[in-house]
């Protein structure tokens, strides 16, 4: 439900109307992890998972709620200057909440291996092979300068899978139009405690916990 903010970036004429629904909005909350903090070990250790979820993601949620509250007040006053000044905070914290909410479900202690069915067929069609896809997404994720995300997304207009990188917490769909299927967090807080500054080692390990059932389910949903 955050996408109305990001849509407004592209089409300022529609800025006010979709945001009117903020007046009666529910506060955002931190989603529970579908597994224990230690469940992804040895690939991602418990300390990283606990800090990442209970501190980093929680901060995005709290800051998003604060920014939305301020936005609601500015909207009620017709204060466009404040509305515009709040958009970076909405984008950053809203994106952080969207991205991490996807990320936790993209991982599983029973993950790894390769996808099956329609998703695997689409990967072979659009990337040549699973190995080629894995290599490309890893390379894009390694190559993110500073903080950001590597993504497998679905291009609905073209009906194909696409790899993309986003800086900071820019949300994939709100900034590129691609529907997110699989996100790999390459902020240092996602791996530093275990892998230090060696991002490629973290990226090699994360494939062992990718939840292909979740990615396949997302693919099936966005194709409908």
TrEMBL record:
Manganese/iron superoxide dismutase N-terminal domain boundaries: 27-108
Name of the gene this protein is made from: Sod2
PROSITE patterns: SOD_MN (PS00088)
Family: Belongs to the iron/manganese superoxide dismutase family.
Record-listed E.C. numbers: 1.15.1.1
GO (cellular component) term, any one: mitochondrial matrix
UniProt name for this protein: Superoxide dismutase
Known function: Destroys superoxide anion radicals which are normally produced within the cells and which are toxic to biological systems. Destroys radicals which are normally produced within the cells and which are toxic to biological systems.
InterPro entries the record matches: Fe/Mn_Superoxide_Dismutase, Mn/Fe_SOD, Mn/Fe_SOD_BS, Mn/Fe_SOD_C, Mn/Fe_SOD_N, Mn/Fe_SOD_N_sf, SOD_C_sf
Places the protein is found: Mitochondrion matrix
EC supergroup of this enzyme: oxidoreductase
List of residues binding Mn(2+): 52, 100, 185, 189
UniProt KW Metal-binding keyword: yes
Cofactor(s) of this protein: Mn(2+)
Key word Metal-binding present: yes
A Pfam family matched in the record: Sod_Fe_C
């Amino acid at each position: 439900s955050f996408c109305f903010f990001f849509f407004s970036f592209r089409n300022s004429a529609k800025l006010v109307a979709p945001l009117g629904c903020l007046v009666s909005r529910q506060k955002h909350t931190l989603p529970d992890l579908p597994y224990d903090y230690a469940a992804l070990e040895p690939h991602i250790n418990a300390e990283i998972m606990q800090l990442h979820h209970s501190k980093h993601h929680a901060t995005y949620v709290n800051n998003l709620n604060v920014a939305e509250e301020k936005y609601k007040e500015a909207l009620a006053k017709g204060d466009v200057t404040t509305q515009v000044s709040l958009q970076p905070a909405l984008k950053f914290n809203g994106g952080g909440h969207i991205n991490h909410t996807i990320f936790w479900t993209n991982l599983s202690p029973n993950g790894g291996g390769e996808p099956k069915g329609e998703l695997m067929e689409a990967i072979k069609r659009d990337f040549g092979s699973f190995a080629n896809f894995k290599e490309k997404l890893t390379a894009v994720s390694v190559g993110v300068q500073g903080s950001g995300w590597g993504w497998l997304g679905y291009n609905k207009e073209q009906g194909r899978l696409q790899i993309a990188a986003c800086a900071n917490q820019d949300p994939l769909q709100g900034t590129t139009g691609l529907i997110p299927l699989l996100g790999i967090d390459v902020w240092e807080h996602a791996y530093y405690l275990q892998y230090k500054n060696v991002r490629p080692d973290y990226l090699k390990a994360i494939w062992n916990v990718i939840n292909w059932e979740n990615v396949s389910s997302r693919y099936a949903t966005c194709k409908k």
